[in-house]
Amino acid sequence: MSQVLERNAAAEPKPEAPAVARPASDTPRLAAIHGDHPLRILLPSYRSNPTTGGQGVYMRHIAKALAELGHQVDVISGPPYPELDPRVKLIKLPSLDLYANPHPIRSIRPWMFASPIDLFEWWSHATGGFSEPYTFGERMARYVRGTLDDYDVCHDNQTLCWGLLKMRDMGMPVVGTIHHPITMDRRIDIDHARTLKLKLLKKRWYSFLNMQIKVARQLDPLIVVSESTRRDVVREFGVDVSKTRLVLHGIDHIQFRPMPHIKRRDDLIVACASADVPLKGLIYLIRAYAELLKTRPNLKLRVIGKLREGNTSYELRQLGIMDKVEFVSGVTDEEITELYNEATIAVSPSVYEGFGFPCGEAMSCGTPVIATNGGSLPEVVGDAGLVVQHSNPPALAEAIAKMLDNPQMREAYGRAGRERILAEFKWERAARQCADIYRQTIENADNRLERARA
């Protein structure tokens, strides 16, 4: 049983904030608009561990890059908690963390009745909903009431919760980030559900989107991480395009690097899938791989991710290649770097991506990549790899065969991919652009306050 469920407090838990040395500061927020003044930044994320997906990767790296620029950075997160640079303070905001409990429905405890937030989180989970963004936001707004003057700005990591608007109304300048609109996930998940029951369960789980859409429309500015995301947020969420600001993600080019001592194979495809969910398009790569095996029986496919019981496992059994595809999970970044350096080709088969960290990481390793045109992947790859139509196994098979048969092409794309990451996708650039947006947001908030007082 989780530690949270064993607590015996009747009231809400106090957020846990490890002691981190900080210079004393009583500088007015107005000083933060000057470019040479360090900012005091609060970064919220309802769950931030890198293993939970791209939002966790983003939190770790943007927090580190901002700290390296000299800013004070506090991350406030629910569990599972992030892995952070030592210069970044973590404020732990406990939730029930029901996904970590093997029996969440039976986990209700008497003390939950003293907390409407806890009770709502349990009830929502028990009925198939996902309430973490909402309940995290309510807990965060409660916490911030006592720490409002500690920060110049809040930069949300796609929580898009009502609590952000409460914080803004308290006087906290708020910047939002949308990696991609989750309406895309919802549509693809429901389309791939094989039964009516599953479709209804999916609709229930994604009900938190009603809140996120309404909050996104009220935030100004909203950072988007690609032009594709900008277009989709405007279309799907009804956001005013003038409120959006483009800041491309970075790639950890120091970790994900060429390893000349590792010999690159000529028979290994590595899939940059990251998760076995319909959005990632793994099923289409598997169909392409099955076709390639007819003429290349020794070709290997390794997937960085965990196989789930569902569409992918069903497809593998139907095609009779369950024993041919290797799934690798629980690996470190260093081990992933080694896998990319061993691979002949890395393939990102996603139906949709808001950005595509795994694809960029493979490019940073000097591995030639094939990606689909799903979402923002063409913006990441540019002319440094092959791009094909998403959800199209024949197109994937043709591109893979073309690259397998042309070592010179693989070498050229591998070199171009590394150069593109170094030129366009460093975290320092992303952090500087974010800081500029923070300062403008603070200035705009102060101007609004002055007009209100006049």
**Rg value:** 23 Å
Strand-pairing-aware structural class: alpha/beta
According to DSSP, the number of beta strands is 13
Biggest sheet strand order reads 3-2-1-4-5-6-7
Outline, from the CA principal axes? Answer: globular
Per DSSP, the total helix count is 17
CATH architecture of the largest domain: 3-Layer(aba) Sandwich
CATH homologous superfamily heading of the largest domain = Glycogen Phosphorylase B
Global mean pLDDT: 89
CATH class of the largest domain equals: Alpha Beta
What's the assembly state of these chains?
Answer: single chain
Low-confidence stretches: 1-14, 17-27
The secondary-structure element order is: HEHEEHHEHEHHHEHEEHEHEHEHEHEHHH
Tell me the β content. 5-15%
Helix content: 40-55%
Tell me the domain tally: 2
The end-to-end span amounts to 56 Å
Main beta sheet: strand number and arrangement? 7 strands, parallel
CATH fold annotation of the largest domain: Rossmann fold
What does this structure look like?
By secondary structure, the chain is an alpha/beta fold. The protein folds into 2 domains: 3-250 and 428-453, Rossmann fold, CATH 3.40.50.2000; 268-425, Glycogen Phosphorylase B (Rossmann fold, 3-Layer(aba) Sandwich). The chain has 17 helices and 13 strands. Strand 8 (268-271), helix 10 and strand 9 form a beta-alpha-beta unit. The protein starts with a helix and ends with a helix. The model is unreliable at 1-14 and 17-27 (pLDDT under 50).
